[in-house]
# Entry
Amino acid sequence: MRLPDFIIGGAPRSGTSWLYQVLDMHPEIHMAKPIKPEPKFFLIDKLYEKGIEYYAKTWFPDSGIHKIYGEKTTNYLEAATVAKRIYKHLPNIKLIFILRDPVERAFSNYLWSTNNKMEKEDFETALLLEDKREKELPENLRYSRPHAYFSRGLYVDLLEPYFCLFPRKQILCLKFEDIEESADIFIERVHRFIGVTPRREDGNTLGKVNDVSREDSLTMSTRVRDKLRKLYDEPNRRLALLLGPGFKVWESHE
# Structure
């Protein structure tokens, strides 16, 4: 039974699809397919109840030609239950999380929902309605959570269940902004972390993945941006303590 050596999880709108496609180019890596829909095995109860052998046979056929196997399910970052399930079956797994400036991530999520006809409110109103909408989500939107703009940026709370279970050496937290700055260095770091031959050039092969077209009318006001910065100050400070000095959090409101 072949199981993954690493898992990519969250955050949404932070470059996880780009990372999946770049890693899938590497001859030593097998990525679970198809990329959509994502496996979500450890997230969806009905899938998880089918057992770990079902997971292995469905997404990780052993071809004998790949050294490392991996999967990406962005929403794994959003449920403490998932961390427990992964640890139960894959205690030695390597975990990769890409985080993005939570203010920019929230607005990108909003643009995605707007472009996909799932959002009609302006950004500020959508933020005010988030808690209510999250409580009233229909079953078909339970995992896509199209209106989870602010809460998905509370990274420290989402990461803590994983850090409580897995050794730090098995968790790699990266920044979306580093892809934009030096994609080649970014991908080399991932290659070394999962244990394949580094191919820095792969990082410059693809353009943007899951890019969102931005209409001129859809912009974030300075007032809303400043408000979000202030709200994220405290959780970002806790994130800095969790991840250590090697991870520079985003600018503070202060």
In short: The two ends are 52 Å apart (CA to CA). Residues 6-243 form a domain with the Rossmann fold fold (CATH 3.40.50.300). The chain has nine helices and five strands.
